[in-house]
Task: inverse folding
DNA sequence: ACAAAAGTGTTCCAAGTACACCCATGT
DNA sequence: ACATGGGTGTACTTGGAACACTTTTGT
């Protein structure tokens, strides 16, 4: 397909004249974890968790960060992310998707580093290496909306608290969403940061994406075991949407996405519940 | 905020040991253009157009590409994109958003080049430099769906024809969407390419994003003049969604997004129509 | 008169919302 | 018995889909 002119050009091509940025891939790994209750009647409480690793080197030595690596020149971006989580933390089964590319010049104190952000969802219970799972608690501190006839400004302050057995990391970000006529700008500022770099922003971005995708995809099943009860499924929705759902309505809404199996959990102190599996064809049920 | 240890580290830090990729920003610029009809009764026909520039140098010399540039180390990514369109083509008013980062190792024959893809929407009528507007015609050639109890495979072949007065560029891509249990893969292959690099993929990605965003944002008004008729607005929706809409339903649906003004167009051969403007506060009408 | 577009009204159906209510289980 | 969760039914509301119909304009 290449002309001789092109072949010649490429053989002589040198790209050393351009100053190049460094590029990392950074993956926000989520799971949903069940915490046993001490009340025999009550169901275990579920928590959304994120996997963080402690940095061993400068900069941000001893701070926690999401899992990432500098990219090499051989591998495709997705594959670099996959290799990274395999080698660094030993995770193998997950859903992967690219989120956004972060390019603030000052986001890394060393030099210009772009970060291609990823979100990973797993239901795996395997022990992972080189890091810890942190409970994710997102709290909307306050929201200020002002509007005129040209548009509006929404200023949100959000706390993202990350907690494990012995550590609690508190982060606060401010999201400024301004609309002036057609110009729409969304900016994000970190006002309290107990993570490395701007990783709390990447986590926030991942939380928003996850929440939005619940509505129109079946992405949530990546966070659940193969077999689950409808109450478990509902709890997962509630965790991510951060709102309470009504049982009857919820069952109707997700009924096409799941199929009952002939198994029941061994509940204690209350009626047993039927187990369900995800039906991957639900989007196609309308087609013939 | 930095410790002395960190300061020392940074002063000694050298990043030369890593092989770095090149990075470009590439912007798909869309507008909607009205083509006058020769029938005095008929409204002008609207076309979605994309702005392409002809490459002057190898590789892909004399091929058309979207507007882009290698990034420098100083500017934020969005700003690099903005500077690029300002300097290269002279465009100043538009909506900008990041789409996706393309990282196929073979996408550039010179060396490893990542591309951060952007979509730009404009309603500007100004003459732009160094390129031409091409009509965008996306035609779904065929779709093959196979499914089993584990999931499905959707194979779509899509032609994207780009046409201006004296040139017609035909491109064909194949989108393979496979779902196997929870694993979902979406891959895109170019089977006929009359553009530079993988830019037809970036354009396809932009078309999809634009279509999806119509549903839940007011992004479309970036493609329209300040004052417009509801029929014009409907035509723009139909162009991007590639489907016919019913008039009465459409008017009800978008009624909250627009406000009538006390002006009427000077229609010929048919009833005059009222002009409307975009109401940027429609998302907030529910709040108090 | 008539072709093209502007604009309104109505019926039907699907899906979301908010409740009320009954069932099953282990201590 | 009772607390906890599992599960169903129903009445109301909202919004989309399909269609019929009227109005206005320049030639």
Result:
């Amino acid at each position: 397909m290449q002309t001789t002119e092109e072949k010649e050009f490429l053989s002589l091509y040198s790209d050393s004249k351009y100053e190049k940025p460094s590029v990392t891939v950074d993956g926000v790994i989520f799971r949903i974890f069940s915490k046993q209750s001490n009340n025999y009647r009550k169901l275990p409480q579920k928590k959304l968790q994120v996997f963080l690793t402690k940095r061993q080197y400068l900069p941000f030595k001893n701070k926690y960060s999401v899992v990432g690596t500098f990219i090499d020149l051989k591998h495709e971006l997705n594959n670099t992310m996959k290799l990274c989580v395999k080698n660094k933390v030993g995770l193998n089964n997950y859903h992967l998707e690219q989120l956004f590319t972060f390019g603030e010049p000052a986001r890394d104190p060393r030099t210009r580093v772009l970060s291609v952000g990823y979100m990973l969802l797993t239901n795996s219970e395997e022990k992972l290496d080189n890091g810890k799972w942190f409970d994710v608690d997102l709290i909307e501190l306050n929201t200020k909306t002002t509007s005129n006839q040209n548009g509006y400004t929404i200023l949100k302050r959000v706390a993202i608290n990350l907690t494990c057995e012995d550590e609690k990391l508190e982060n606060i970000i401010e999201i400024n969403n301004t609309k002036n006529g057609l110009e729409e700008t969304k900016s994000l500022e970190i006002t309290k940061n107990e993570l490395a770099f701007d990783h709390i922003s990447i986590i926030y971005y991942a939380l928003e994406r996850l929440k939005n995708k619940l509505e129109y995809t079946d992405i949530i099943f990546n966070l659940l075991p193969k077999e689950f009860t409808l109450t478990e499924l509902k709890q997962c929705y509630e965790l991510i949407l951060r709102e309470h759902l009504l049982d009857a309505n919820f069952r109707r809404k997700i009924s096409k996405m799941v199929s009952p199996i002939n198994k029941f959990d061994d509940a204690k102190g209350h009626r047993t519940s039927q187990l369900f599996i995800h039906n991957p064809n639900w989007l196609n049920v309308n087609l013939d």
